Amino acid sequence: MLIEPAQKYNHYTPLNLSDRQWPSRVVMQHPTWLSTDLRDGNQAISKPMTITQKLVLFRLLVSRGFKEIEVAFPSASDTEFSFVRTLIENQEIPDDVWIQVIMPARKENILRTFEAIQGAKHVLVQLYSSTAPIFRDVIYRNSKDDVVNLAVKHTQLVRLTANEYTAQFGTEFQLVYGIEGFSQSEMDFVVEVCSEVKKAWESHGSRTRPIVFNLAATVECAPANHFADQVEYFQSLLPKRDESIISVHVHNDRGTAVAATEHALLAGAERVEGCLFGNGERTGNVDLVTLALNLYSQGISPGLDMSNLDELVDFMTECNGIPVHPRHPYAGKLVYTAFSGGHQDGIRKGLNLMDDGFRSMKKDRTPCWRVPYLPVDPSDFGRTYEVRINSQSGKSGTAHVIEHVLGLDIPRAMQLELSQTIQALCNKCARELNEKEICMEFSRLFHFREPENSGSGTDTIHLESCQVQSNLPIIDANIMIGGEAIVGEPNLLSCSKLQVEQGKDFLLALNKQLGLGLVLLEEQSMKSRYGIACFVQVGQHGNTWWGVGRAGHLAEATVRAIISAVNCVLDSKLDL
């Protein structure tokens, strides 16, 4: 890198707009979307798609709601030409969808392009000029007058040919005039070119659909706000502005294509060209998925169906041979995943409040989404929130896993004890733990056993069998201590007593059997996904232990929770 980069690179020249309007505007509706995945995206991949692959992608774009789709550069190759013919001859294009074809300002290319679209119902024909000095001077070696003359001449040819095809085949046409290098051009010159193109188009036929002026940041060379200034300046000087549509086609060289496009919409643009997930030359075109879902997250219908995002990601990855980054907005594998303890805590609290809101509202209404760290509900796109547990995770993360997998909403004190154990294990293993490992560690730490799996070789005490008589609420429990059955008081617990009395009575019986002096400090019960869950805390000499049990009946869940806690006491090996 240069110490003084100004020696090599020029700073952009800002526009002097004393009364710019776009910063105070708000976008309240989606633009017209055009997907150029089949053309601009396809030309930028190492292995271009076959006609069969293109056809499948075209159908997908239609199913996702695109009404304008750029399908080919027909004069560029036989494959491009043949694909357009396939679409038309096989009647693949719905009546409400317009296909777009692109062509340079050359007579032979224009005529070849019209051959390709013969018989189509609705066609956007895009002609383009390179107006930027760097293109005029380096590539084409032409003057401003040359650019204007070529633009007018070939616009007239396109219009006359379109008139013939309309008369012969009934095709409805709309002109899209692309300004290649718009963001690097002199704005007054761009206005001149577009004005002359409009005159040429309208002077050779009746006015039908408005001309689309497609303003391209072919190479992104300045901040997003500067592009918005350029769009606002252009449209403010364009004669009869209401008779034209302003479109933008932004590349991502500076990484701000989404911002530049959103700013351009504020500045007056009404149409956007781009690719799904930002495919395209160099750093790609603007990402239509991100743009659409940015609108969605603000309560604005995007006009595109982005449900089941994983399916779309997999499909486009296969088409392009380019994976979607795990951190890609909305669509990445890790977007709805939290590792940080603070994030996990905030998200868990927010999701719990959302659940409360759903339960309290009428069936035909949905509470506004308010979850920290999650700007959108992943389920809207077929995704789920995922907790990933590593040494940076906190108690809320592990608690979420236990709640999600086991259906247990564990008390805060248990969360803390579990998270400390999990963090220590993550550090020891030097990796994250998966849900199965976390649940196994929870079961080991608290001696948690489901009713169908009560016995365990590592538990000093376990419930061999348990039955609750429905007509007479009495629990008949067979308790094993050290592999031997015990008889007497612990085997009969009246369920008609208060819950705390059940716990105390059973704990007293175990104290007597084991020679302990444990006291029941806290007892909680709640409905869980798989029955009634009970949590108890016991203590002795300032030490405390938690236990958890679950069963179909409260009395049995209480017995299991106390057995869990006492096993934790015995496991601690403290001299009590």
Mass-distribution shape = elongated
The helix-and-strand class reads: alpha/beta
**Strand order across the largest sheet:** 1-2-3-4-5-6-7-8
**End-to-end distance:** 69 Å
The fraction of residues assigned to DSSP E strands is 15-25%
Tell me the CATH topology of the largest domain: TIM Barrel
Helix content: 40-55%
CATH architecture of the largest domain: Alpha-Beta Barrel
The average pLDDT value, as a whole number, equals: 90
CATH top level of the largest domain is: Alpha Beta
**DSSP, total strands:** 17
Catalytic activity: 3-methyl-2-oxobutanoate + acetyl-CoA + H2O = (2S)-2-isopropylmalate + CoA + H(+)
GO biological process, one term: L-leucine biosynthetic process
Keywords: Transferase
EC number: 2.3.3.13
Written overview of the protein:
Pfam families: HMGL-like (PF00682), IPMS_D2 (PF22615). The protein has 576 residues and is an alpha/beta fold. It has 3 domains: 292 residues, TIM Barrel, CATH 3.20.20; 110 residues, Helix Hairpins, CATH 1.10.287.1400; 122 residues, Alpha-isopropylmalate synthase LeuA, regulatory domain (Double Stranded RNA Binding Domain, 2-Layer Sandwich). It is built from 17 helices and 17 strands. The strands form 4 sheets. The chain has an 8-stranded parallel beta barrel with strand order 1-2-3-4-5-6-7-8, surrounded by 7 helices. It starts with 31 loop residues before the first strand and ends with a helix. About 3% of the residues have low confidence.
